[in-house]
């Protein structure tokens, strides 16, 4: 006998099974579970050769479910409860009943109330739905026919406004009447509150005196400068009582230095080194002697001009501090070393004109200093000798706006142009990853050491949080914090209050208004759950106020403050505001 393709060629025997072809089927196309019918086999070889005895066949149950989540995975709720919707469809061939369990996780005590409801009407309303499970107490749902869809609602209710919360993570699982070894996920969600926060206290400058540069916090005291733009006269203010201890306040806590500074208009950066406050006066770099201010020594102006040889300082770029020295960028594209007493000490090598001009504040990493240029170059200076150790163009003709370094020292993070974040390998400054945003970035990069996260905001009010090692967005990011008119600028900082588990992102922004003005905005956002946040109202920020891109903290205790400063508001006068940290 010949064989072809592994099949015997010989007498053909045809076996045919005959049954009831009119058996009913479910909406999903299966034979109904429990259907019975008779089968008989016939064998033919041109003609009938043999028939089997009839056999009774019963269709078993097929377990097949489909889950569809039809609500967003996260919610930020100003009032009431968060309600998440998911649907299950019985795709099997028989009636089935599901059993459910609910779960919740919080960073602190369990203060949210979580419930799982069955809603056969499918209208998304808790009213009229049946409670079937809570965390720690499972339950069963109703019998569900093949092809039937049932809606389930997960409700998460926050605690009262007097109880702090960092948000909640909730999940619901189910199993069938024929249990599998593991439960199946019905849905996984995250919720947070959107609550108001107030300003604890304020310290004002005199009427018509605006704040042009960031205040400084030195030895538990706050210093700031108010300037009358009409006369170019400035006053130095400070808090005589410490603001870093329990019971601190900015209210009724202002002392004015006794000497008026004539022809003094602060500008640019604001940095403290030792007892010297370095800032700008017009285009000059000056050092204010804070010891003289505290002593109210009015015998002469309390500042001196810091001169750089044959060049002007770049007051728009915040200097770096290394080994007790200030590294100031010069208009000559050199770094100038300033001692804490305000005297010039040294200068770096000058890079080639090919690289362009400095375009971002310098960053110190070990004994190296990195700085970017307006032609997309990053330079690395050796701080031991002032030489240029490395130069590489990382973004063709895109200015480098800000820099940060990961905690392991492996990646240098750079904002290039308006829409790009780069992760650069430190060894050779080659691109390891890049991340593009659809809208322009309006804040410097803020790197958070403990979570290895880089944060920034875009013009449309979205807060981004990227894994600094991969450039991938963290869960639940990007998250829109403000909508409406575009943001003009933003400043971010991260703080963990002692005794708490949740880091908070402190976001300060200046937003355009429909009438052509601007308005300061401020929010405190849970880093791991950006749906949970506290916002200071426009009224509390003072309508029409113009804030400096500056955030500072008086400490990490429950009584500590986050400090922000407004150039001016409607009065008009500048002020510093203290907001309790979360």
Kindly list the characteristics that best describe this protein.
582 residues; Lipocalin; 9-stranded mixed beta sheet; mainly beta; 50 strands; 47% strand; disordered N terminus; single chain; 2 helices; 5-stranded antiparallel beta sheet; Immunoglobulin-like; elongated
What's the quick description here?
This protein has 582 residues and is mainly β.
Helix content: under 10%
Q: What is the name of the CATH architecture of the domain at 63-193?
A: Sandwich
How would you state the average pLDDT, rounded? 93
Helix-strand makeup class? mainly beta
Inertia-based shape: elongated
CATH class of the domain at 63-193: Mainly Beta
Major sheet description: 9 strands, mixed
Secondary structure tally, helices: 2
Strand content: over 45%
Query: What is the radius of gyration computed over CA atoms, rounded to a whole number of angstroms?
Result: 34 Å
Number of E-type strands = 50
Give the end-to-end Cα distance, rounded to a whole number of Å.
87 Å
CATH fold name of the domain at 63-193: Immunoglobulin-like
CATH homology group of the domain at 63-193 = Immunoglobulins
């Amino acid at each position: 006998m010949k064989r072809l393709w592994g099949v015997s060629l010989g007498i053909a025997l045809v076996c045919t099974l005959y049954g009831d072809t009119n058996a009913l089927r479910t909406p999903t196309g299966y034979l109904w579970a429990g259907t019975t019918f008779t089968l008989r086999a016939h064998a033919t070889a041109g003609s009938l050769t043999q028939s089997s005895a009839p056999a009774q066949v019963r269709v078993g149950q097929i377990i097949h479910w489909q889950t569809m989540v039809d609500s967003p995975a996260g919610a930020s709720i100003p009032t009431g409860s968060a309600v998440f919707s998911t649907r299950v469809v019985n795709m099997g061939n028989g009636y089935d009943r599901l059993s459910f369990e609910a779960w919740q996780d919080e960073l602190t005590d369990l203060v949210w109330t979580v419930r799982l409801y069955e809603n056969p009407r499918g209208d998304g309303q808790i009213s009229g739905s049946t409670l079937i499970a809570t965390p720690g107490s499972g339950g069963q749902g109703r019998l569900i026919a093949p092809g039937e869809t049932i809606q389930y609602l997960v409700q998460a209710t926050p605690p009262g406004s007097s109880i702090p919360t960092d948000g909640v993570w909730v999940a619901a699982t189910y199993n069938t009447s024929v249990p599998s070894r593991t439960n199946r996920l019905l849905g996984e969600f995250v919720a947070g509150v959107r609550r108001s926060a107030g300003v604890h206290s304020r310290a004002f400058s005199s009427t018509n005196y605006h704040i042009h540069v960031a205040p400084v916090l030195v030895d538990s005291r706050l210093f700031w400068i108010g300037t009358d733009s009409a006369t170019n006269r400035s006053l130095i203010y400070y808090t005589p009582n410490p603001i870093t201890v329990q019971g601190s306040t900015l209210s009724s806590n202002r002392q004015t230095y006794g000497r008026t500074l004539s022809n003094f208009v602060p500008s640019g950066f604001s940095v403290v080194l030792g007892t010297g406050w370095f800032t700008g006066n017009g285009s000059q770099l000056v050092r204010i002697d804070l010891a003289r201010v505290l002593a109210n020594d009015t015998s002469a102006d309390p500042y001196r001009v810091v001169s750089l040889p044959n060049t002007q300082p770049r007051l728009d770029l915040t200097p770096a501090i290394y080994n007790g020295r200030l590294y100031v960028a010069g208009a000559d594209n050199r770094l100038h070393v300033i001692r804490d007493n305000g005297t010039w000490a040294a200068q770096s090598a000058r890079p080639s004109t090919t690289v362009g001009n400095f375009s971002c504040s310098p960053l110190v990493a070990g004994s190296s200093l990195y700085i970017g240029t307006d032609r997309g170059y990053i330079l690395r200076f050796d701080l031991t000798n002032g030489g240029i150790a490395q130069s590489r163009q990382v973004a063709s003709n895109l200015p480098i706006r800000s820099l940060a370094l990961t905690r392991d020292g492996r990646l240098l993070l750079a904002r290039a142009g308006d829409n790009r974040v780069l992760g650069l390998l430190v060894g050779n400054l080659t691109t390891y990853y890049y991340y593009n945003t659809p809208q322009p970035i309006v804040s410097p990069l803020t790197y958070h050491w403990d979570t290895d996260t880089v944060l920034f905001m875009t013009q449309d009010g979205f807060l981004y949080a990227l894994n600094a090692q991969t450039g991938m967005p963290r869960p639940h990011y990007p998250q829109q914090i403000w909508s409406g008119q575009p943001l003009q600028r933003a400043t971010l900082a991260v703080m963990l209050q002692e005794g708490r588990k949740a880091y908070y992102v402190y976001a300060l922004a200046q937003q355009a208004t429909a009438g052509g003005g601007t308005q300061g905005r401020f929010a405190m956002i849970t880093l791991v759950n950006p749906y949970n946040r506290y916002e200071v109202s426009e009224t509390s920020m003072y309508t029409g106020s113009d804030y400096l891109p500056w955030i500072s903290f008086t400490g990490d205790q429950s009584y500590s403050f986050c400090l922000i400063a407004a150039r001016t508001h409607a009065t008009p006068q500048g002020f510093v505001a203290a907001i309790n940290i979360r």
